Amino acid sequence: KSRFSIAIDGPAGAGKSTVARQVAERLGLTYVDTGAMYRAITWKALQQNIDLQDEQTVSRLARETDIQLAPGKTGTDIWVDGKKVTDEIRTPEVTAKVSLIAGQPEVREVLVEKQQEMACRREVVMDGRDIGTHVIPDADVKVFLTASIEERAQRRYRESIRRGFEMDWEQLKEEIRLRDEKDQRRKHSPLRPAEDAVHLDTTGLSIEEVVEEILNLSRTKV
Length: 222
Ligand code: C5P
Prior knowledge:
Blueprint: E1 5-9, H1 16-27, E2 30-33, H2 34-47, H3 55-64, E3 67-71, E4 76-80, E5 83-84, H4 92-102, H5 105-121, E6 124-128, H6 131-135, E7 141-146, H7 149-162, H8 169-185, E8 198-201, H9 207-219
Parallel strand pairs: 1-6, 1-7, 2-6, 7-8
Antiparallel strand pairs: 3-4, 4-5
Bound molecules: cytidine-5'-monophosphate.
């Protein structure tokens, strides 16, 4: 363990990426959106008409794929094999399928290795589902972000509209619930708080309040 790092985990729509990005900006660290990496593989597999249940083919695909992350205008920009797919990885189709791929141990192995390399090279704020438990178990600060399902659905709803997808509210809520359930129930690196994570319920809090809270936690560590 060498570099300073902050791990932020939690269910879908808890505000992880917005908060993580701002914390990184304020502290001059690199933000790494690990969900975007699982989405990237899902997008590419769909693109190539690969059977998403075929673990061997999917893991080979993951191993052969070049994924690059960089800060963009509205979040992380992501390149897959040199093609910018920032918007493509956020479609409802990719969102609905991503848990299927994220449940496969070999895919996880490939992506976790990439994530650990990033945390080795740079000081990072990394968000995901298993960062505090598996990817950087010795992170300096570990936060588990949650919010009520209503609030999380509302955030996703607004985000979807902003991205130009018409979503049915009840359906969106059900999708979030289902995705969390799959992420929590999977055998490999399920979504769960690390034992030493600080729990932060963001229901009713502003982004700024959550960011400040995490900055406070970090101050005690730097
Ligand atoms: O964070 P985001 O909602 O973009 O993540 C998409 C999906 O990627 C999650 O629902 C989960 O299945 C998977 N994921 C994961 N481990 C991570 C990050 C994301 O399994 N560290």
